[in-house]
């Protein structure tokens, strides 16, 4: 499933019509009929329906929806919210069809009408992705009235007034209960401040060819089929050396558990051999608890890792660093040294990110893959901006950072955005609020470490790791846990079921 900006959606439509030869009236017919089919699944036969139609393609879709529902026997009327001379082209064609089929159209007179409260269902086909700036009167008052008084609101493609793209913090928008997205979801469906306005959403296909999307966007959602198509199968004659020898560097006297969770998660996710490199005290605490891992003792200062002795990375296929190590100066020296010298893929998380913030040039110049896994606070720290600024444009900031610093970025959050050094972006939608607990990120880093040592590209490995991590939480919540009691260690235990599901 692709994710598009407003411009990309216009370009996709244009490509389909000019390069492929699909007629605009046909696409509008397909869109309206597809949405109408979804509407019939969530409304009653006895419901009275009012379609709010504006100008442009969104209004045209509304006329098709109204005609289709009318043909199915529903009580439907249209409230046209723009003047007659604003309905042009394909939208005008479908307006005339609706009228010829006996449809009734009322013109909005600028006042909040009783049609909003006298109908059980409001279908919002006012603006779509063509919204520019904050809604002006009289539409602003109409939207406020709908949000306050309407019983059920269904938006077509995108709630009217909501920006399709990131970067816009002020708007007046329909608050939909359901949104049926035309062709592909828009970027705003994945942003913290705009996604709630969609309500429950799902995309509908209108016959746009996949070639049109591949030509115009490099942003998409990663799902279970993508995992199945990219995750390597295990062969009967495989041995542990073929599934990677990984090193996890972290832990301190204050946070030994972070290292333990990364070690366990990596082993559960399929790593062949995993070594925990940490202080002598942490090894004593963990060795009896995680017996499948091996351990390497590193030098320390007062219970925190330092750089007094060289750390050999010879023989390891990948390294993860940062979990629970703290922010002491002596520890920072170790992190920067390892980032500079590691001749294998390296995953940097948690306190490791804090230690590299002043030395990003070392990441940019690395000849081997670098993966960073920040939450929004850590990403904002690396960029020198506020969290609010980041969350307003997470796709742009992630992409710019990944390209500039030659790194893979896994930006964790309500949804996770994975970005390659070439700027390709994937959204992972598995997971739930139960993951908002300490240790969840340590578990994800362990899974990532295991995945990047298997036979897949680094980008595929990151996408698969994020999906598997979130899917484990989803399965646990559906079976025996709640958002409140789910622990990071539970997610590790839940990995077994996820691998059975995807195999």
Automatic annotation (TrEMBL):
Keyword tags: ATP-binding, Isomerase, Lyase, Metal-binding, Multifunctional enzyme, NAD, NADP, Nucleotide-binding, Potassium
Cofactor note: Binds 1 potassium ion per subunit.
Catalysed reaction, written as an equation: (6R)-NADHX = (6S)-NADHX; (6S)-NADPHX + ADP = AMP + phosphate + NADPH + H(+); (6S)-NADHX + ADP = AMP + phosphate + NADH + H(+); (6R)-NADPHX = (6S)-NADPHX
Family statement drawn from the similarity comment of this UniProt entry: Belongs to the NnrD/CARKD family. In the N-terminal section; belongs to the NnrE/AIBP family.
Binding residue positions for K(+): 58, 124, 160
Annotated positions binding AMP: 412-416, 441
CDD domains assigned to the protein according to its UniProt record, in alphabetical order: YXKO-related
UniProt protein name: Bifunctional NAD(P)H-hydrate repair enzyme
Pfam family, one: Carb_kinase
PANTHER family named among the record's database cross-references: ATP-DEPENDENT (S)-NAD(P)H-HYDRATE DEHYDRATASE (PTHR12592:SF0), ATP-DEPENDENT (S)-NAD(P)H-HYDRATE DEHYDRATASE FAMILY MEMBER (PTHR12592)
Cofactor(s) needed for function: Mg(2+); K(+)
Binding locations of (6S)-NADPHX: 57-61, 128-134, 157, 258, 324, 375, 442
GO molecular function, one term: metal ion binding
GO biological process: metabolite repair; nicotinamide nucleotide metabolic process
Domain YjeF N-terminal: 9-214
Domain YjeF C-terminal: 223-502
Presence of keyword Isomerase: yes
EC numbers, comma separated: 4.2.1.136, 5.1.99.6
InterPro entries to which the protein is assigned, alphabetical: Carbohydrate_kinase_pred_CS (IPR017953), CARKD (IPR000631), Nnr (IPR030677), Ribokinase-like (IPR029056), YjeF_N_dom (IPR004443), YjeF_N_dom_sf (IPR036652)
Subunit architecture: Homotetramer.
PROSITE patterns: YJEF_C_2 (PS01050), YJEF_C_3 (PS51383), YJEF_N (PS51385)
Stated role: Catalyzes the dehydration of the S-form of NAD(P)HX at the expense of ADP, which is converted to AMP. Together with NAD(P)HX epimerase, which catalyzes the epimerization of the S- and R-forms, the enzyme allows the repair of both epimers of NAD(P)HX, a damaged form of NAD(P)H that is a result of enzymatic or heat-dependent hydration. Bifunctional enzyme that catalyzes the epimerization of the S- and R-forms of NAD(P)HX and the dehydration of the S-form of NAD(P)HX at the expense of ADP, which is converted to AMP. This allows the repair of both epimers of NAD(P)HX, a damaged form of NAD(P)H that is a result of enzymatic or heat-dependent hydration.
Highest taxon of the lineage: Bacteria
């Amino acid at each position: 499933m692709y994710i598009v900006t407003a411009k990309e959606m216009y370009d996709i439509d244009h490509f389909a019509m000019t390069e492929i030869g699909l007629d605009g009236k046909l696409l509008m017919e397909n869109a309206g009929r597809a949405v109408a089919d979804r509407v019939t699944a969530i409304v009653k036969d006895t419901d009275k329906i009012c379609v709010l139609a504006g100008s442009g393609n969104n209004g045209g879709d509304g006329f098709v929806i109204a005609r289709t529902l009318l043909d199915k026997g529903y009580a439907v009327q249209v409230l046209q919210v723009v003047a007659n001379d604003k309905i042009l082209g394909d939208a005008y064609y479908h307006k005339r069809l609706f009228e010829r089929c006996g449809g009734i159209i009322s013109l909005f007179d600028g006042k909040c009408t009783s049609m909003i409260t006298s109908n059980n269902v409001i279908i919002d086909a006012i603006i779509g992705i063509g919204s520019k700036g904050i809604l002006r009167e009289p539409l602003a008052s109409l939207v406020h009235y709908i949000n306050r008084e309407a019983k059920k609101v269904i938006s077509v493609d995108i709630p009217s007034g909501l920006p399709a793209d990131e970067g816009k913090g002020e708007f007046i928008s329909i608050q939909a209960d359901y949104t049926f997205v035309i062709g592909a979801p828009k970027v705003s469906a994945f942003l913290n401040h705009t996604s709630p306005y969609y309500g429950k959403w799902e995309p509908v296909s209108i016959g746009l060819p996949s070639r049109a999307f591949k030509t115009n966007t490099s942003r998409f959602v990663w799902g279970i089929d993508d995992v199945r198509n990219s995750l390597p199968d295990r062969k009967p004659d495989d041995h542990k050396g073929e599934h990677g020898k990984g090193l996890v560097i972290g832990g301190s006297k204050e946070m030994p558990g972070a290292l333990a969770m990364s070690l366990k998660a990596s082993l559960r996710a399929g790593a062949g051999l995993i070594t925990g490199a940490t202080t002598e005290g942490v090894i004593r605490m963990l060795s009896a608890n995680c017996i499948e891992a091996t351990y390497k003792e590193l030098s320390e200062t007062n219970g925190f890792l330092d750089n007094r002795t060289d750390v050999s990375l010879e023989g390891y296929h990948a390294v993860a660093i940062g979990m629970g190590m703290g922010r002491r100066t002596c520890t920072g020296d170790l992190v920067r040294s390892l980032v500079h010298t590691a001749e294998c893929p390296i995953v940097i998380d948690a306190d490791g990110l804090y230690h590299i913030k002043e030395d990003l040039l070392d990441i940019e110049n690395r000849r081997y893959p670098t993966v960073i896994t920040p939450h929004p606070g850590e990403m904002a720290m690396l960029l020198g901006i506020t969290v609010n600024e980041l969350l307003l444009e997470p796709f742009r900031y992630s992409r710019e950072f990944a390209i500039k610093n030659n790194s893979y970025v896994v930006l964790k959050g309500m949804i996770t955005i994975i970005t390659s050094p070439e700027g390709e972006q994937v959204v992972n939608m598995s997971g739930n609020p139960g993951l908002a607990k300490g240790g969840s990120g340590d578990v994800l880093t362990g899974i990532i470490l295991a995945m990047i040592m298997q036979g897949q590209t680094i980008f595929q490995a990151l996408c698969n790791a994020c999906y598997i991590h979130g899917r484990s939480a989803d399965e646990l919540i559906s079976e025996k846990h709640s958002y409140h009691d789910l622990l990071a260690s539970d997610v590790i235990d839940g990995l077994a079921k996820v691998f059975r599901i995807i195999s």
